[in-house]
């Protein structure tokens, strides 16, 4: 009986997280921007700056709906830490264009690495972060992988592709694979590097 109730609660939590993720699907998070750089009008700042940072985003006029910093307890902030800037766009395709542009051309401003990411619910974020150790292991071994939405790790081994919902099982599989220096190379003689994806 208890197991049945726990399974039901887990299912409800997944459904709630999915609903929250869908409500945020047109949001983008930016971390690393210096405090106050956006001035008093964050939308105007982003409308001007995004095409400058990423030339492929040349037609954003009217696409940005709202933007603000996420407030936090100043007493818990680390020295030099900045609050996340979150903004909403009119279309999901625009969000994808922004994320793809940022991934293709990583941005650094005044020595700060600026990161663009989807705005997921805290539940989904925790599930995705649970794969961090497995992904670090994959990167170290040169194993190619994709972190799929909401929290599934797709790993390309030697002649095989597997998906994992369990971080532990994913790490065990990655550890069992040969390192990139031992793996067969592709037709051009280059080994396949590890990489990740935030795609939904």
TrEMBL record:
This is L1 transposable element RRM domain-containing protein. It comes from the Eukaryota. Gene3D superfamilies: L1 transposable element, C-terminal domain, L1 transposable element, RRM domain. Residues 178-200 are annotated as: Disordered. Residues 189-200 have a biased composition (Basic and acidic residues). It comes from Pagothenia borchgrevinki (Bald rockcod).
